[in-house]
Amino acid sequence: MINFLPMIVSRSQTSNIMNFFVPIIAIILTLVTGSVIFLLLGFDPFYALYTFFISPISSSYGVSELLVKATPLALIAIGLAFCFKNNIYNIGAEGQLTMGAIFGGGIGILFHDTSAFWLLPVMIFAGALGGALWGLIPALLKTKFNTNEILTSLMLVYVALFILDFLVVGPWKDPNGFSFPKSRAFSESGRMPLLFEGLRVHFGLIITLFLIFISWFVFSKTMFGFQLKVSGFSPKAARYAGFNQTTLIFLAFGICGAFAGIAGLSEVSGPIGLLYRDISPNYGFTAIIVAFLGRLHPVGIIFASLIIALTYLGAEDAQLFLQIPSAVGFIFQGLVLFYLLGAELLINYKLTFKKTL
Amino acid sequence: MSNLILDIKNITKSFPKVIANNKVSFGIKKNSVHAILGENGAGKSTFVKILYGLLEPDEGSIEYNSKPFNINSPAEARKKGIGMVFQHFSLFESLSVRENLILGIDETMSYSNLEKKLENISSQYNLPLDLDAPITSLSAGEKQRVEIVRILLQDPQILIMDEPTSVLTPQEVESLFVTLNALVKEGRTILYITHKLEEVISICDTVTIMRNGEVIDTSSTSNFTAKSLATKMLGQKLDDLKTNYEHVKDEFNFEVKDISCEFNDPFLTDLKNISFKVRVGEIYGIAGVAGNGQSELMDILTGENINISSGEIIFNKNKIQNFGPQKRRDLSISFVPENRLGHSAVPELSLSENILLSQFPKNNFLKNGIILKNNIDDYANNVIKNFNVVTPGNDVKASSLSGGNLQKYVIGREISSNPKLLIISHPTWGIDAGAEHAIRESLIELSQNGTSIIVISQDLDELLEITHKISVIYNGKLSNSYKTNEVEIEKIGLLMGGKND
């Protein structure tokens, strides 16, 4: 009997060099596939790719916009690394981001007429708290009732979005806002300071870089980072070592939630300045791609966040100059993830057409 | 020769580093229950896998009904009349009995035909089944019945049963034997794989005894007693014991008192009233065939499982049954579980990093939660040097070491902390002879320095060589303990086979 469908067989040895090249291969294949798509749509692929990937960042304004988009992606992705390293699949960063925006933004709305210096720090803290609390719900459900965190964290995204929806059309609606579904604006002292005159890149970038540095330290130098790694690699060894898995799950979710919450808060107190319905173009979900594209490593995540941020900008430019729907940006994100997972599979497994028993 | 259904000639099958079957030859008579008896690792499973088409032999030939045997896959085996009931069931838990039976059939069969056939089989062989019950709701014995019926639907001539009673209650065992007898009466042949002496004597006609991949003897069971079977199965053990009792103090520092633990899981063995005491400087051995509760007991001794039903564990007057692994290490107890890769060591991490898995009070590996890399590197280098671990350095991944070297490293890591008590499971499992010798030697040396050691092992040679006291675990119960230099090997063999006289 000959199988015409290939079998997936584990490779006995995986190449370390190929492992390093996985993200690069994925990006190259994405560009190739992207060219084909552009060609089929009737565009010159080189011009289209130029419009998509080069022209958006050929001005200082463009670079600033790139950083504005990369900031939340990198911050959420590094938070997700705490979960993913521990083999916990938190898919609900978008909800944690939203909750962070609600908590921090709520403080901003409450003190909309303050000009005190403490407002922004309190908002950041509240944002972290909101995100962390939202993240702890799936942790609690997982440890108490053994529920699947993928489902619960994902479902909680929609709960958080509906809460935000309710707040901006209901109790927190701007009294002078002509019934638009948005809150009143935060006071100037509740806004993220801008880093450069005339550009939108803001203090959130500094917070993000600082937290990425802290995370790098935790991952590589501390016992806590070691425990996350061990329980991710082999739960049995973690049990043998006597690591408390429940604590690790809570900490990973709590930290990830807090980071996502800060990311949410920096969005609303940075470029946006108030609360409304669509505060995030799916940053919480896209950050999952960033985390894996960056191979859960702090430096990798920085680069990955820039690349993925570029797909957001490129999609806007493509819409403007080529009249292509901006959804093409999501296509590129999807392609990257698809090729990344595919390349990773082929590094650990090979396809064979040989007959096996 | 025509009454042989299978005639096996010089079957050899080797794997890297081990010859699992070495010139295996014997005949199986038609219409009989034929036992293959042997310890774990004797080569029984390999042989059976060859018969069922899962493995191909390197050499040798088999005649099946006086024709060359040519079976390359389980599906082919079933088609040609060889069925097999595995030790672990392969049923879909969420589907009903009926659905599982339908899924198991290779050829197409009309629904009414199937029902009729099922009814016949059920009544004929004492195999009552509730076709609509979901598999999850069935006991282990009932699940096995589904497996047997599924095989019988294909009308096999030979039925291979792999350790069929390992998950059954005594009552279920009895009803299984009724079924087997009915099957033989009908002219079928049963190949019965087991390590239980009693079962061989009570239901098998002929027995083939295997040891270290070779056939020791094939003969009618009426020629044997449980005792003589045990001796044959275990072989002539080394009588050259050099256990030294002088340094063992007459003072107990570890006691397990009446530990019981229920799991409600057919693949785990419940522990029943386990009690034993260990002296200062004593090596206490727990022998037994795999799957009789060793790993369950180990988890309780290490603190990885602290959900025991009743009982106490006392170490130096502390009651520690509720302590997790780290709290036990704080009392200077160290552990080496059976499995190296993924349990006592993380294969993806470096040797240095693996040091951090078990920390003792005297270790200075952390400061305010920050890892002191130099200190763990030093510790790792010492272990590598003192225990002759062959490795290019402390920064290579644990997975890159050979089994023996990694085991030396892990045991070295634990011994270097100078524990007061070392609990170790299968210390030389799957490693080369050189490493085996080094490890046994280091255990003896450790005990001479006053450390108590508990060794759980299936390797009886090993236990006879290094322990002072020995007991046997069988079906979750621990036997009395015996002085290793006084006990008769037959006695241990009988206890391992579940015969306590």
Distinctive features:
heterodimer; A: 357 residues; mainly alpha; ABC transporter involved in vitamin B12 uptake, BtuC; two-stranded antiparallel sheet; B: 501 residues; Rossmann fold; seven-stranded mixed sheet; 23 strands
Please describe what this structure looks like.
The complex is a heterodimer of chains A (357) and B (501). Helices cover 69% and strands 2% of the residues of chain A. The N and C termini of chain A lie close together (10 Å). By secondary structure, chain A is an all-alpha fold. Chain A has one domain: ABC transporter involved in vitamin B12 uptake, BtuC. Chain B has 3 domains: 4-234, Rossmann fold (3-Layer(aba) Sandwich), CATH 3.40.50; 238-332 and 420-501, Rossmann fold; 340-417, no CATH class. Chain B contains 16 helices and 23 strands. Helices cover 32% and strands 25% of the residues of chain B. Mean pLDDT of chain B is 86; it is low at 237-241. Chain A binds chain B through residues 1, 221-224, 226, 229-230, 233-234, 236-237, 239-242, 357, and chain B through 53-54, 72-74, 302-304, 324-327, 329, 335, 337, 339, 342-349, 353, 356-358, 366, 369-371.
Shape of chain B: elongated
Stretches of chain B where pLDDT is under 50 for at least 5 consecutive residues are 237-241
**Which sequence of SSEs, written as H and E, runs from N to C of chain A?**
EHHHHHHHHHHHHHE
* SS strand fraction of chain B: 15-25%
Question: Which structural class should the secondary elements of chain B be placed in?
Answer: alpha/beta
Total number of strands of chain B? 23
Mean pLDDT of chain B: 86
Q: Biggest interface, which chains?
A: A-B, 17 and 32 residues
Radius of gyration of chain B: 25 Å
Q: How many strand units of chain A?
A: 2
So, CATH architecture of the largest domain in chain B? 3-Layer(aba) Sandwich
> Termini of chain A, distance in Å?
10 Å
Beta percentage of chain A is: under 5%
Our Rg estimate of chain A from Cα atoms comes to 22 Å
CATH topology of chain A: ABC transporter involved in vitamin B12 uptake, BtuC
Number of domains of chain A: 1
- The third-level CATH topology of the largest domain in chain B is Rossmann fold
Helix content of chain A: 55-70%
Multimerization state: heterodimer
